[in-house]
Amino acid sequence: MTVRIDLGQTEAGAPALMDLEELLATRLLVQGNSGSGKSHLLRRLLEGSAPWVQQAVIDPEGDFVTLADRFGHLVIDAAGHSEAGLQLAAERIRQHRVSVILNLEGLDTEGQMRRAAAFLGGLFDAERAHWTPMLVVVDEAQLFAPMAAGEVADEARKVSLGAMTNLMCRGRKRGLAGIIATQRLAKLAKNVAAEASNFLMGRTFLDIDMTRAADLLGMEKRQAEMFRDLRQGHFVALGPALARRPLPVRIGAVETESRGAAPKLTPLPSQPLEDARALILQPPAAEAPRPRRAPPPPPPDILAQLAAARPAPPPALPPPSVEQQAERQRRLEAVMRQVLADPDSGYRPAAVLYQDFLVRCRIEQIGSKLPDMGAFRRLLAVGKAGVPAEMAEGEDWAEAMARAAPLPEDLQGVFLLLARAALAGAPCPSDAAIARAYGTRSASRARRALAFVEERGAIVTRPDLTGRRIVTIAGPGWETAPGHPEEEAVA
């Protein structure tokens, strides 16, 4: 069913009809200077569409509250509600399909912007099941979607502009049809105005506004002067819901009265000058003396309060016993064996293995004071050497650990691997085994590492008659069995 709203008459005397269903899909922009009949046009449109579609009016001056008596709109005084309350009310309005007027009268500009943004946000964020058609009329839209920053806070301007942009750009899919009215096109954000496909342009005098109005209507610049000559209540209409070509229309009468009508001329009261002087210049009544207030207490000492509120240190825990330390060390070594169980662990950087080690320690709930990087490297060297438990508990292995300490951390694993083989009488580790202990896959780097340890005086290497390598640990004289450098030794 096609619903057409009678706005008034064209110049030819024919009815000026607006297709309501087309309006819901294409939105409307109304422009006109103060006194051009802009609010009268909105009232005519609201009255004509009230029986057919749900309405929401953003009313900064309280001009439209009189619609409630005639058409049953719910009037919400925004000054008495928080932003969160208005957002929730907007969601319920869409749920119950109640027409509403948001009265922003009495609020400063920033307060109007914030509350209007919250209300529009509630309409926009309603659940999909409640996306029914709704006309959203915003009077004085340049207040809520300003072209440039003004005296209000930048955060309030961004929130309000974002809500207006959502209404005009993305509201159609949610059933929201924006109708925005402004006194100055030049003061209205372009991305908001550009989303309207229907226009009703009224009287305006500034060149920049006339030029922009003519551009929106597809008129030539020389025709823009006609907007100065429009009378009150006369507009030029264009758009799929109105007319395919610019069409002058005269807005018809309305059923309800506006609270924002301009004051009428009334005669001045006949008042003798002396009486007027006495009424106006009468001295104010004497005020009763105000009791003196006690001086405010000095501000509290914040540092003292913080010191008093500081929690007491936890009681010192007794030092761990020898058994507890041994158990902790055993668990750390078990975690290290888990880390080294990965075949590629011998070739990964120590920093990567350390992160894996810390994660596994937390999983095992070993405690908060975990080994640092230096202690981890020593554990890693022992783990790579593969020392059996009975050997690790002997005095010889303690001496081997002491002799490895002066060496660089990355070479301690190489030395301990050789010491372990010497203590066990096993063949000398191959270049591949030494490379794994050194953290590389390169046999040449393994040989250089072995030569460096020998230069530090920690070991002595010599070949036997068949060319196999023998390593002697300097000092105690422990010696490995002959082992071929290119064969993997078997422990």
UniProtKB/TrEMBL annotation:
It comes from the Bacteria. Signal peptide: none annotated. SUPFAM superfamilies: P-loop containing nucleoside triphosphate hydrolases. GO terms for molecular function: ATP binding. Residues 11-71 form the Helicase HerA central domain. Pfam families: DUF87. The keyword Mitochondrion does not apply. This is ATP-binding protein.
